Amino acid sequence: MALGTLIDTEQTTKLTRRIFAPEFKQHLGELCQQPDTLVSKVAMQHQINANLLHKWIRQSISMSPVLKSLPHPQTDFLPVILHSTPVRREVPPPPVPEKKALAHIRIPLHQQQESAQDQMIEIDWSMESIT
């Protein structure tokens, strides 16, 4: 394949700047994608800096939407079936305890070394004062 370069006509410095055709860039990118191919070797064969060739490869990856085919082709969306659900009925409030009911509360205290029995605080609490 021909080198595929164009010479910049503006002579701003002593060195001329090479401009490469997009087809040439794409061809070199495809060469680099081959198995067991070194980017630096392809760059040397075509008298291009390896960093520039890496840049072209990155640009071609970012520009093309899909470079590789998907392993499994995408199928259509699966249908979603919605079954009608019954309307939730309001849950009745919990029953109010009787006013005469008592809560029996027992709180154990730490056992002291001197006494053989555990000490306990016992409280009878009226349920009407809880609400």
Written description of the protein model:
The protein is of the alpha+beta class and 131 residues long. Helix 1 (22-32) packs across helix 3 and helix 2 (39-45) packs across helix 3 (50-63). Helix content is 24%, strand content 15%. The mean pLDDT is 76. The protein has 3 helices and 4 strands, in the order E-E-H-H-H-E-E. It has helices spanning 22-32, 39-45, 50-63; strands spanning 5-7, 18-20, 102-108, 120-126. It has 2 domains: 5-63, Arc Repressor Mutant, subunit A (Orthogonal Bundle), CATH 1.10.10; 98-131, no CATH class.
How is the topology of this model organized?
Layout: E1 5-7, E2 18-20, H1 22-32, H2 39-45, H3 50-63, E3 102-108, E4 120-126
Antiparallel strand pairs: 1-2, 3-4
